[in-house]
Write a structure and sequence with these properties.
This protein is of the alpha/beta class. The protein is built from 15 helices and 12 strands. The protein has helices spanning 6-21, 63-78, 130-138, 183-196, 260-271, 279-290, 315-318, 345-356, 362-393, 397-402, 416-430, 434-437, 441-449, 454-464, 475-478, and strands spanning 49-55, 86-89, 159-165, 168-169, 172-173, 181-182, 201-207, 225-229, 238-240, 258-259, 302-305, 340-341. The strands form 3 sheets. Strands 2-1-3-7-8-11 form a 6-stranded mixed sheet, sandwiched between helices. Strands 4-5-6 form a 3-stranded antiparallel sheet. The two termini are 41 Å apart. 52% of the residues are buried.
């Protein structure tokens, strides 16, 4: 099989550089929730610690999400939480993936140890679903389909920690199996959990692009739930320990090893005493590191819900750490990182794979195909959404409506069922949004907020997309996001 010629290689490099340097600068906002709940660290009432850890992606180019979850498990396990109280969701297609240079091993930092060993395989493969995630939170074993059957069987004195890492978009979180997780549904589940009276406090750490939109204007105070997010409602979150970063992964790794917010909270937990460090102290440290020296390759970590719970010690949720090395007042000075927009981490992998493959090899051809298909899909989705906006609202007003950002404190959309309908209608005609296309959820929300009806969206989508794309981007093959 012939390899790429110089001209083809040059063209591919040009495409990559255009994508690389056209990354949207993060729009920085301030704010977050404010709560009246005050936490008493002297409360000695008994209670069990529970944890739900979920990596919402699959494929080797998303290595970092499962690495994040495995690292989180190791922290909780060493902290004294029992496996029966830790529920893990991960597709489990990374450790023994043919792309993994260390079969059976997953690392979360360049010099990191194996974090895969011993991780429970509660919900893997096609069992990593929204339905199972919600059933686990609610302790509803009858609603489960597949998996270990473990659920959060908590009581009124128990403390729950939920950590979710993946791609996302305005009002949505990715899953390796469709449908995706929508914010309105998650908030409904948290309200149901609160109504059962089966926890004392719940902490939610969320890593994804536009992760603030999952709670912004949606998570009420008074439910004893405290949430932090990797980004505000309108900005990307960032992958780290990527090829070309400093520190960089070992040379045999052609993918990002972690996410900036996630490694920030976990590496902080690795070195500090959770018995004396509070959630608020960790939030401040995470916020500083994730802002990445206030560069455009950083994001704003946010707080929502009952902020008073942040006065609790970390040990209430993640357990103890007898091997801590520094006090919270001696936090190391983190150097700025060449972080990668989460949505571009797949391109980094394909490019590294292409560059490192021998000339003329099937691996090089495969990498080129993956890269070009990803770029083509992006162009198709971006163009289709933009054109639909112009058909619905006019050439001048279309972009303005699609790009509208609601004031802080308001939810993304007034009618979540409408949002799902608009997404499904688009995908019926134009194919799967995929992890990249989730960035356009805000546009679909604005279409709903503008009062567009399903038949109007159906007609506009049909005009723009004459045929449904085939292959990996086909909604007919992969199902629908909503």
């Amino acid at each position: 099989m012939k390899g790429l010629g110089d001209e083809s290689h040059s063209s591919l490099k040009t495409i990559f550089l255009v994508v690389w340097f056209s990354l949207d600068a993060s729009t920085f906002f301030t704010g977050g929730g404010g709560g009246e709940t005050v936490y008493d660290n002297n409360d000695t009432s008994s209670g069990t610690r529970w944890a739900v850890l979920i990596a919402g992606s699959n494929n080797y180019f998303n290595y970092r999400h499962q690495a994040d979850v495995c690292h989180a498990y190791q922290i909780l396990s060493k902290g004294g939480l029992k496996d029966e109280n830790i529920i893990v969701f991960m597709y489990d297609d990374i450790a023994f993936n043919r792309e993994n240079p260390r079969p059976g091993v997953i690392i979360n930092s360049p010099q990191g140890n194996d974090v895969y060993k011993g991780v429970p395989k509660d919900y893997t493969g096609e069992n990593v679903t929204v339905n199972n995630f919600f059933a686990v939170i609610l302790g509803n074993t009858t609603a489960l389909t597949g998996g270990s059957g473990k659920v959060v069987n908590s009581g009124p004195n128990d403390h729950i920690f939920i950590y979710y890492t993946d791609h996302g978009g305005p009002g949505v979180l990715g899953m390796p199996t469709n449908p995706e997780l929508f914010a309105g549904d998650l908030i409904d589940v948290l309200k149901k959990k609160n109504a059962t009276g089966t926890y004392k406090s719940l902490v939610f750490y969320l890593e994804s692009c536009e992760s603030g939109s999952i709670f912004e204007g949606l998570l009420p105070e008074g439910m004893n739930i405290y949430a932090t997010t990797a980004a505000n409602a309108n900005e990307s979150s960032w992958a780290t320990y990527c090829p070309g970063d400093h520190p960089s992964p070992p040379p045999e790794y052609e993918t990002c090893l972690g996410d900036l917010y996630s490694v920030a909270w976990m590496e902080d937990s690795d070195i500090h005493n959770p018995g004396t460090e509070t959630l608020q102290q960790q939030y401040e440290l995470i916020k500083g590191r994730t802002a990445n020296n206030n560069s455009e390759r950083g994001s704003h970590v946010m707080q929502y819900g009952d902020i008073g719970l942040s006065q609790a010690n970390l040990s209430q949720y993640i357990g103890t750490n007898d091997n801590y090395t520094t006090s919270v007042d001696e936090d190391p000075l983190w150097s700025p990182t060449k972080a990668i927009d989460q949505r571009d981490a797949d391109l980094i992998h394909f490019w590294e794979k292409f560059n490192n493959a021998p000339g003329g090899s099937s691996r090089k051809v495969e990498a080129r195909k993956q890269f070009v298909e990803a770029i083509s899909h992006r162009m198709h989705i971006d163009h289709s959404v933009k054109l639909i906006g112009k058909i619905l609202f006019g050439i001048e007003k279309g972009p303005e409506v699609l790009n509208t950002i609601r004031p802080a404190g308001l939810p993304l959309v007034d009618d979540w069922d409408c949002l799902k309908t608009m997404v499904r209608t688009f995908e019926t005609h134009c194919g799967s949004l995929s992890q990249y296309g989730m960035k356009h959820m805000g546009s679909f929300a604005n279409i709903c907020n503008a009062g567009v009806k399903k038949d109007q969206m159906d007609e506009a989508s049909a005009q723009v997309c004459v045929t449904v794309p085939s292959g990996p981007w086909s909604s007919l093959e992969n199902g629908f996001s909503a």
